[in-house]
Specification:
- Two copies of one chain form a homodimer.
- Chain A contains twelve helices and twelve strands.
- In chain A, helix 1 crosses helix 3, helix 5 runs parallel beside helix 12 and helix 8 runs parallel beside helix 9.
- In chain A, 53% of the residues are buried.
- At the A-B interface, helix 4, helix 5, strand 2, helix 10 and helix 11 of A face helix 4, helix 5, strand 2, helix 10 and helix 11 of B.
- Strand 2 of chain A pairs antiparallel with strand 2 of chain B.
- Chain A binds a DNA duplex through helix 2 and helix 4.
Chain lengths: 346, 346
DNA sequence: GCGGATTGTGTAAACGATTACAGAGGTGCG
DNA sequence: CGCACCTCTGTAATCGTTTACACAATCCGC
C-alpha cells in the first residue's frame, strides 16, 4: 500500500537502520549516503508511519483534548490557544467533542490510549474517578474548568467568581441597588461560579434580593426570553447582569424592541467579552475571560509535565478576569472604547 | 509502564490470542474463559494500544482535519458538524489548525501519515499538488471550500456565488440601485465567490457600478472602518452588502454611532447568518450557510470513500444557501422573525 | 468406534518503525 | 606493527497488537 522505510532502504542501497538514522538525524552517517537516502525518500514520497513509530518510542507527540458539547466561540478560542502552544512545542491535537453523557466520555478517554501523550479535559461530565479508572497509572492530565479537580490532577480555571464580584461592585458603584442576574445552565461550572460571585457581592453590598435570579442557558434565545420575566415583575431592576454575553445580547435586543432604552432605562452587563460585544449598540460592558490563554496555559502545563516526568505536586491555577467597561451600563457617554483597549481575540 | 494484552493473558491464564479474540468479539471462545478474561481486563484497567493496533489492522478509525487560521464561529460549527457525523460512524478526529503558510501545511499533512484513515482539508493554502506530493497514493481526501479542487479530489463547497446573487436580487427588488459591497480577504475562496456573485447580479440588474467595492477582512473591525469610506464618498449607497455578518455588524455599529438609521437611511445585509444576526437591532438580513451540514457531509463523503475503496469518480458537491430576510433592509416593519424560521445552529 | 465437522485454544508471524550491539575499515600513536 | 579509537553501517530485538495456521478435544451420524 503505502511506502515503508524498507523500500527507501532498498532504493538507497542501505539498511533500514541507516535510513532511520538519517531521517532522525541521529548517529554518524556519511554525507553521500545521507544524500542518497534523502533523495530516495523524497522521490518515493516516504512519510514515516506515526503508529509504528510511537509504538517503539513510546511517544506520540500528540495531545488529547476532551470537550463537552459547546456552544459558541468559547470552543474555538480555547482550541486555538491550545493549538498555538502545542504547535510551538511540536505537538499535535487529537480533539473529541460533543460527547454529552458520561459513558460516552469514558469511552473517549479509553480511545485515547496509545494515541496521545497526555490529556486536556474540559468535560464537566468526566468525574476524576472515572478518569482514573480508564487511564494508565500516572497518565498526565490537565483539567480545565472542571468541578472537583480536588487533589487528583493538575487543574486550571478562570476566576469566574472574582469577575462576577467585580462586576457587581462596579454596578453598585454606579448607584444600582437592584441588579437582576441572568443565570447560565445549572450543571455548568462557570455558570455556577459566576452566580456565586454575584450573590456574594450582592450581599456584601447590601443590595435588594427578592426574586432577582432568572434562569437561562447561555444562549441568545434565553436572554431574549428573560425580557418577559423582567418586565412582568412588580419591581423592575435598574441593571441586569447576564452570566454570559450571548444572553446579554439577546436581552439587549428584546429591550430595544420594546422601546426600553439601554442604558438610560436599564443597564446591561455580560460576561466573556466576546468580540461582538464591543460592536453592538450600545457597546456591552463585560468581563474579559482570557480563553485562548487558558488553552495555551493548559497545553503548557501538560507538556511541561510530560517532559519532566510526573509533576512534583498537583498544581491548581486560576487565571484572572478583567472588567471591561463600555457604555451599556451608562458609565461612558457613547464614546466607544477602541481596540486599543486590547484585542486578545485576534 | 501501562498494562498490555500480555499481562491480561497471564492474569486470566490464557494466551494473548484468546484475549484479543474476546475483546474484539471474533472467533469462538468458551463462555467461562471469556468471563475470566473480561474481568481480568477490567481489574487491570486494560485498554488496547491504538498505535499497535492500527499498525496491524491498517485502520486508525480517525479522520484528520486540516484548518487554516480561522476567525469566529465558522470553525467551531464546522468541527461540530464533522464530529457529529464521525462519532456516529465510530471515528475520531485529529484536528490541526492555525497553520498559515504553505510549508507548515505540508508538514501537517505529512504528520498525519499513519495516524488517520482520511483527511478533510480546509486550508486554501494547501494546493492539490502539494497534497499529492505528501500523501500516499490514493489517500482519501475531501476538500472543503478550497480553490482549484479540479479533478484530483472529492470536494465540497457552499453556494457562495448563488447566495450573493440572490441577495443582490432581493435588494434590487426592494428598489435599491446603488449597493456597495464590503469585501472579504482577497485570498479567501468564499470571499471571492461572494464578490463574483455580487458583481454578476449587479450587472444583471443594471445597477450602479462606480467605486462601490470596499476592502475588508471578515472581521468586525473592518466593517466598522468601512463606515468612514462610505460616508466620505460623493454618492452614498442606499444599501451595503457585507461579505460576512461580522463585518455587517461592525458597520451597523458604526452607522448607529453616527446617527445614521438602519434601515431607514441605509440598508445592511450580511452573509453567513451567524446566531447573533437575529439578535441585533435591527435584526440582520443575511444568507444562511449550512456550516454544520457542510462538515457533516464532508465526513460522510470521506467515510463512504473509506469503506467502499477508492471512489468511482471524483465528486464535487455544492450545498445550497438560503436568503434569510429580517428587518435590516427595510422589508419587515420591526417584527422579529422567531427561531421557528429554523435554527440549525443550536 | 470411526471419519469429519465443529469448537476452543496456543504458537508464531506479521505490521513499520527505533536502537543496542557488533563488526568493518580507517587513522593516529607509541 | 599493534592497539585503541574513531566513523560508518548492518543485524536483529523490540514495541503491543491481530490473525493465519496448527492442534487437541468434543460431537455427530452412521
Amino acid at each position: 500500500m503505502s511506502v515503508t522505510i524498507r523500500e527507501v532502504a532498498r532504493e538507497a542501497l542501505v539498511s533500514v537502520a541507516t535510513v532511520s538514522r538519517v531521517l532522525n538525524g541521529k548517529g554518524p552517517v556519511h554525507a553521500d549516503t545521507a544524500r542518497r537516502i534523502r533523495s530516495a525518500a523524497k522521490s518515493l514520497h516516504y512519510v514515516p508511519h506515526g503508529g509504528a513509530r510511537s509504538l517503539i518510542t513510546r511517544r506520540t507527540t500528540t495531545l488529547g483534548v476532551l470537550l463537552p458539547e459547546l456552544y459558541g466561540e468559547f470552543f474555538s478560542e480555547l482550541i486555538r490557544g491550545i493549538d498555538v502552544c502545542a504547535r510551538r512545542k511540536g505537538f499535535h491535537l487529537l480533539v473529541s467533542s460533543s460527547h454529552s453523557d458520561r459513558a460516552e466520555s469514558e469511552e473517549m478517554v479509553r480511545a485515547m490510549r496509545g494515541r496521545v501523550d497526555g490529556l486536556i479535559v474540559l468535560s464537566p461530565d468526566v468525574r476524576p474517578h472515572a478518569l482514573k479508572a480508564n487511564l494508565p497509572e500516572k497518565f498526565p492530565v490537565v483539567l480545565v474548568n472542571t468541578a472537583g479537580g480536588r487533589g487528583s490532577f493538575d487543574s486550571l480555571t478562570v476566576d469566574n467568581f472574582g469577575g462576577a464580584v467585580e462586576m457587581v461592585r462596579h454596578l453598585a458603584g454606579l448607584g444600582h441597588r437592584r441588579i437582576d442576574f441572568l443565570e447560565g445552565p445549572a450543571a455548568n461550572r462557570d455558570a455556577s461560579e459566576r452566580l456565586r460571585g454575584y450573590r456574594q457581592a450582592r450581599s456584601e453590598q447590601g443590595l435588594e434580593t427578592s426574586g432577582v435570579e432568572i434562569p437561562g442557558d447561555f444562549r441568545e434565545e434565553s436572554g431574549y426570553e428573560a425580557c418577559r420575566r423582567i418586565l412582568a415583575a412588580r419591581r423592575r431592576p435598574s441593571a441586569v447582569f447576564a452570566a454570559n454575553d450571548s444572553m446579554a445580547l439577546g436581552l439587549l435586543c428584546a429591550f430595544q424592541e420594546k422601546g426600553i432604552r439601554v442604558p438610560q432605562d436599564v443597564a446591561i452587563a455580560g460576561f466573556d467579552d466576546i468580540p461582538i460585544a464591543r460592536y453592538v449598540t450600545p457597546p456591552l460592558t463585560s468581563v474579559r475571560v482570557p480563553i485562548a490563554e487558558l488553552g495555551a496555559r493548559a497545553a503548557e502545563l501538560l507538556i511541561a509535565g510530560l517532559e519532566s516526568g510526573p509533576a512534583p505536586g498537583r498544581r491548581r491555577e486560576t487565571l484572572p478576569t478583567h472588567l471591561v467597561v463600555r457604555s451599556s451600563c451608562g458609565e461612558l457617554d457613547g464614546a466607544r472604547p477602541r481596540s486599543a483597549s486590547g484585542t486578545g481575540y485576534g
